[in-house]
Amino acid sequence: MEKFTYFYRSESPFSQWYPANFYIDGHQFNCAEQYMMYCKAVLFKDITSSQLILRTQTPREQKELGRKIRGFDKAIWERNCKAFVYEGNYEKFSQNKDLLQILLDTKGTSLVEASPTDRIWGAGLTEDDPRILNRATWRGTNWLGEILTELRDNLILRN
Hints:
Elements: E1 4-7, E2 22-24, E3 27-29, H1 32-43, H2 47-55, H3 59-67, H4 74-95, H5 97-104, E4 110-113, H6 143-158
Parallel strand pairs: 1-4
Antiparallel strand pairs: 2-3
InterPro entries: NADAR, YbiA-like_sf
Organism: Paenibacillus monticola
Protein name: DUF1768 domain-containing protein
């Protein structure tokens, strides 16, 4: 039977909003959400938004700026967003050894974002909802959990 590691909210190191500094291409990011929204702005060539996102300190503000990116195309975003989230989390965990160990300690489980409201990045259910115990009854796709599980497994294979 499949075992799960559930997470939700910014207090979890697996959250996109968890505060963790890392660097990519000379830019400092304070959380994976900032990197994701920055990549979204760059993808759609909205340089003004990309610079604002880099200067914004909170994930809530970063996400809000990400919703306003000019030229946004959902189909293009969906083809690219998972790679951005993977890359941002790779750097977040690789550059923060304490967080890396927490991720590696989930070995043997599938990570699940137990967000009752997010049906794309999360499972669309809370951790205490019995439907979360079975993938077939999830209300969401759990993209973030899938990416983090893949990242962890890839990091284990490399070591």
